Amino acid sequence: MSFIQITVGSYNSPDNQPTIHRFELDTETGRSTLIDSYAGLSNPSFIAIPQKDVLLAVNEDCNHDDGLTVLHFKENKYQKIMKVSGEGSAPCHVAMSPEGNFVATANYLGGSVSVFPFDKVLGTISNPDVIKFCGKGPDERRQTGPHAHFVTFTRDGRYMIVPDLGADALHVIPINDGKPDGANKTDVNMAPGSGPRHIVFNQKGNIAYLVSELAGTVTIIDYNSKAGTLTTRRVVELDPNHAHASADIHMSPDGSFLYASNRRVDDGVVCFAVDNENGELNRVGFTPTGSHPRNFTITSDGNLMLVACRDDNRIEVYRRDSETGALSLLSTIGCPLPVCILLEDSETV
Questions:
Q1: Which backbone phi and psi does 180 adopt, to 5 degrees?
Q2: Sign of CA dihedral 137, 88, 154, 201
Q3: pTM strictly above 0.85
């Protein structure tokens, strides 16, 4: 049998249930076993695992207590090591740098990114530097100011990319001397009112796919590593219902399929076939899921997809057909208000 470890971050529940959960999943049967739950964190809406048995979790509380918490996992139990203020309100995403020397959080209400030095030996963080953004969009409810929503890095490690839902922009921040250089950032403007949310690069690193929450679209973007430029090629419809709630985006490990999720109306995951020559997209499928699929992930072998269905209090486990990209439900895992899933492969026995 083959097993994977699943770590889940959840929003706070009315009955104060734990918000960090660790499961073991049998990838053949879909059966899961709860290993540990941790109740000492508020709204860990996004998590990262920079190295084995170290967990980083944002605290998305929309107040001065927001920040980044470090947990260590020892003897099948989580232990809180430290919490450091991010100096930016409502952090909603966290990502480790390619070199592993710093971790960055996207601060939604703060309109900024906090960059925390990371100690690889101790598994700890230090006080951050903060890169602030400006701008707004035409949506008077959602775009009154900058709303950094995600952090990622170009495959060559030269730039940190931050989609900004409020300012309709991608902030492109060069990595100089091993850290982000906010003073020399450039902005790539996206369609007004589109609300850029999450972005993923292909395996070659020369094409990026951006999901825009408000427009319900996927934008194909060409990346020129030599020039350090991002150029919009084409916009593809993702949400024909115009629910203004498109969410997550991921590529299959073999690079043949791209998946993105929609919420609020016809909640589910859309599948696009990816042209191996030019990266163009062709919509080939849609899988209805539970309510509010805010985040999903694909196992490293490409055989399973796990979807966090927040409002149905469950994680749905799907078999994935590597030839067609189609998904079929295998099992469900009960979990209160799940919003982020990370996977770790464990030994096959």
A1: -65, 135
A2: negative
A3: yes
